[in-house]
UniProtKB/TrEMBL annotation:
<dbReference type="InterPro" id="IPR015421">
    <property type="entry name" value="PyrdxlP-dep_Trfase_major"/>
</dbReference>
<feature type="modified residue" description="N6-(pyridoxal phosphate)lysine">
    <location>
        <position position="210"/>
    </location>
</feature>
<dbReference type="InterPro" id="IPR015422">
    <property type="entry name" value="PyrdxlP-dep_Trfase_small"/>
</dbReference>
<dbReference type="InterPro" id="IPR015424">
    <property type="entry name" value="PyrdxlP-dep_Trfase"/>
</dbReference>
<dbReference type="InterPro" id="IPR005861">
    <property type="entry name" value="HisP_aminotrans"/>
</dbReference>
<keyword id="KW-0032">Aminotransferase</keyword>
<protein>
    <recommendedName>
        <fullName>Histidinol-phosphate aminotransferase</fullName>
        <ecNumber>2.6.1.9</ecNumber>
    </recommendedName>
</protein>
<comment type="similarity">
    <text>Belongs to the class-II pyridoxal-phosphate-dependent aminotransferase family. Histidinol-phosphate aminotransferase subfamily.</text>
</comment>
<feature type="region of interest" description="Disordered">
    <location>
        <begin position="1"/>
        <end position="22"/>
    </location>
</feature>
<dbReference type="Pfam" id="PF00155">
    <property type="entry name" value="Aminotran_1_2"/>
</dbReference>
<keyword id="KW-0028">Amino-acid biosynthesis</keyword>
<keyword id="KW-0368">Histidine biosynthesis</keyword>
<comment type="subunit">
    <text>Homodimer.</text>
</comment>
<feature type="domain" description="Aminotransferase class I/classII large">
    <location>
        <begin position="26"/>
        <end position="347"/>
    </location>
</feature>
<comment type="pathway">
    <text>Amino-acid biosynthesis; L-histidine biosynthesis; L-histidine from 5-phospho-alpha-D-ribose 1-diphosphate: step 7/9.</text>
</comment>
<keyword id="KW-0808">Transferase</keyword>
<dbReference type="GO" id="GO:0004400">
    <property type="term" value="F:histidinol-phosphate transaminase activity"/>
</dbReference>
């Protein structure tokens, strides 16, 4: 605490990101990164723009990237907004569509950045408890006063809503914006982008961080009807004209044009998730039916926190959330087959040698 801090800085409750350890030997399964590298074309495209043009600002309107995204998503260029990671897009959405006197709704267990933004912008919120089976309570998400936000698939559970359930939330909130955060949708869930034409209150956000192995260049985007996109542009242009740097622009465009490569890595991640889930279940662990690139896992015989700390000592980083409702669980990102085999071995050995 400093006497120089504004009230906003004093009262902020910042998000705690997963650790980014420096040691090379660590097997890092704590921040849902893609275990495979970006495609060679993507890397080449970025290298090509590391030249003297870097003295110039990037384009403030990112028209060319917007066109590539629009083409891929089957929408118009005017229905696309691009941000510095989808976290930034979400932050702008909170400012553009939510009010300080109207409570928004999000699930009781969800991405922990939502309450951080709500707190930062002074937006009241109601956390709608999940159903017993950890699915999102669709009826509970209806009739919000200020708007709704939820990830699909949800984090950290990995469970996805079907499109007809997403539609119920949209129909239940005709006068406020529903943000569907699809950070993990490419790993097996249905995208709500196809509902954008029909629902003026729908904003879908996506990211290249996970599906396109580009967490390091920070590019995310939103799809919605033109009026919503214009709202986001108004906030962005009141904050920073140049949110996407030249290298990120080149990388994002090249990646989105290199679909075959990324489809293959997505399939590899999904296949690994399937056998790893089954192997954990064979050990007696309870594993939710994830449609994302991570698994939400309840260990047996050992405490979740103990498992997290012990694995960390042994060089395996996974995520543990010290919060009621999820204290019994750990979240494990899906790595390569080799990484997951090593983790499985380590967990089996720990269970064998564990004496209470
Ligand atoms: C549910 C969810 N939404 C959004 C993000 C943000 O992704 P990025 O800012 O890298 O696009 C994350 C990152 O982990 C996430 O888990």
């Amino acid at each position: 605490m400093s006497k120089f801090w504004s009230r906003t800085a004093r009262e902020a409750k910042p998000y705690t990101p997963g650790e980014q350890p420096n040691e090379l030997q660590v097997i890092k399964l704590n921040t849902n990164e893609n275990p495979y590298p970006p495609s060679p074309n993507t890397l080449e495209a970025m290298k090509r723009v590391v030249n003297e043009d870097l003295r110039k600002y990037p384009t403030p309107t990112v028209d060319s990237l917007k066109s590539v995204i629009a083409n891929r998503e089957g929408v118009n260029d005017e229905q696309v907004f691009v941000g510095n990671g989808s976290d930034e897009v979400l932050a702008f959405a909170f400012q553009a569509f939510f009010e300080s006197n109207e409570a928004i709704k999000f699930p009781g267990v969800t991405y922990s950045f939502y309450p951080v933004y709500a707190n930062l912008y002074g937006i009241p919120f109601q956390e709608v408890p999940l159903n017993e089976d950890f699915t999102i309570n669709v009826d509970g998400m209806k009739q919000s006063i200020g708007g709704v936000i939820f990830p699909n698939p949800n984090a950290p559970t990995g469970l996805a809503l079907r499109l007809n359930q997403v539609e119920k939330v949209l129909q239940g909130n005709p006068n406020s914006v529903v943000v569907v955060d699809e950070a993990y949708v490419e790993f097996g869930a249905e995208s709500a982008v196809q509902l954008v034409e029909q629902y003026p209150n729908l904003l879908v956000t996506k990211t290249l961080s996970k599906s396109h192995a580009l967490a390091g260049i920070r590019v995310g985007y939103a799809i919605g009807q033109e009026e919503l996109i214009e709202g986001l542009e108004r906030i962005k242009n009141s904050f920073n004209s140049y949110t996407i740097n030249r290298v990120s622009l080149a990388g994002a465009e090249a990646a989105l044009r290199d679909d075959a490569y990324y489809q293959e890595t997505l399939e590899r991640v999904i296949n690994t998730r399937v056998w790893f889930k089954q192997s954990l279940e064979e050990l007696g662990f309870e594993v939710l039916d994830s449609k994302a690139n991570f698994l939400f896992v309840k260990p047996v015989r050992v405490e979740a926190e103990w498992l997290y700390l012990t694995l960390k000592e042994r060089g395996f980083y996974i995520r543990y959330f010290d919060k009621s409702k999820v204290r019994g669980y750990v979240r494990i990102s899906v790595g390569t087959d080799e990484e997951m085999e090593r983790l499985l071995n380590e967990i089996s050995n720990l269970l064998k040698n564990y004496v209470q």
